[in-house]
Amino acid sequence: MSSEIATLSATAVSLGFIHTLFGPDHYLPFVAMARVGVWSMRKTLTVTILCGIGHIASSAVFGFIGIALGIIVHQLEDAEGARGDIAAWMLTLFGAAYLIWGVVYAIRKRSRQPEVVQESDGDSLSTDGKKPGSLTPWILFVVFLFGPCEVLIPLLMYPAASADVWSVIWVTTLFGLTTLCTMTGLVVLLYLGVAQIKSRWLASYGHALAGFVLAACGGAMLIGL
Predict the structure, then answer these.
(1) Distance of CA 62 to CAs 55, 66, 149, Å?
(2) Model confidence at 177, in pLDDT bands (50, 70, 90)?
């Protein structure tokens, strides 16, 4: 392995970890929806991994096509930025709609009956027995499919392309695996931590809080945090 590829490899691992750790949209949505949806650990990790693969693969394919067509870096970055804006707006609007629904649902529920906190299969704490629809994982997948890996193309794929195609594949694979491992690791830690919280307020307003988390993550993406 040449010194250039060794440097790119180390950079890929570092960036995969850092961009995921400091991008809460990579893990908080899964934890929030797992809590209110009463997802098992297996389902939560399955959704996380599938969304992560879509997130990385879409940027990788986009980058490969761009390199093959000889598109210059700033044009690819502009296109990736447009994709990122679409993903951010999708997450923000979905979160805002879910937040509003959650508040209305909680108010109506409180007016009808006392709050109930239930355990579900020993995996997580149900908010109120009401689960989000089965489309939620697919909505998250579409959002992550549009969400670009901002650092992948300009910092990794283009420099690697100056060597050979296998260098591009190697660097992209390292970046992708590091991103997936970081995503799943953070989701597991937060999933286990949140499962220990047994709050009557969360039992009523868990859906609204989940919507707020999604909207906040989308908003942070829009303003570039």
Answers:
(1) 11, 6, 11
(2) very high
Summarize the chain as % helix, strand, coil (round to 5): 80, 5, 20
Q: Are 163 and 5 in contact (CB under 8 A)?
A: yes
Q: Considering all CA atoms of the chain, what is the largest pairwise distance in Å, rounded to the nearest integer?
A: 68
| Residue 8 CB-half CA count within 13 A | 26
- Scored b (16 or more CB within 10 A) or e, 80-113 reads beebbeebbbbbbebbbebbeebbebbeebeeee
Count CB neighbours of 179 within 10 A: 25
Sequence ranges of the domains in the chain: 3-222
| Verdict on whether the full-model pTM lies above 0.85 | no
Residues 70-91 have pLDDT tens digits of: 777 677 777 777 888 898 999 9
